[in-house]
Write a structure and sequence with these properties.
single chain; about 120 residues; 3 helices; about 25% helix; six-stranded mixed beta sheet; alpha+beta; globular
Length: about 120
């Protein structure tokens, strides 16, 4: 199982992609193929065209959704704590669990995404 985070440091925004298998695409191909991913956010078109997009791949334990959820939440929290906004509404499995960091709810920004 894999969680892929595509982020822009300049825009302070990110998207998360989840896969039950490991993605076979290179980072460069993944960035070029961002149109294939439907993200419900009004700022997603500007994000896709950012020049500083970076890909981080996180291997999550397969078959143990609880541990995968905690590990995914750990990586997501690192970004959100720096002020990043996650674009769109959350979709995918496993859902990152931020409770280990004391986060009970996230701040929603209508038509944009969520942050701390």
């Amino acid at each position: 199982m894999e969680m892929i985070i595509v982020s822009s440091e300049q825009q302070m925004r990110l998207i998360m992609l989840f896969s039950r298998t490991t993605a076979k695409m290179s980072d460069k191909a993944l960035i070029k193929d961002l149109d294939a991913h439907k993200v419900n956010s009004s700022v997603y078109p500007a994000f896709k065209s950012a020049q500083d997009l970076r890909v981080e791949r996180i291997k999550l334990p397969f078959g143990d959704d609880k541990t995968a959820s905690l590990e995914g939440g750990d990586f997501l929290y690192r970004y959100l704590a720096k002020g990043y906004i996650c674009l769109g509404d959350y979709s995918g499995q496993p859902k990152p669990d931020l409770s280990a960091w004391g986060v009970r709810s996230v701040r929603k920004q209508p038509r944009v995404g969520f942050g701390l």
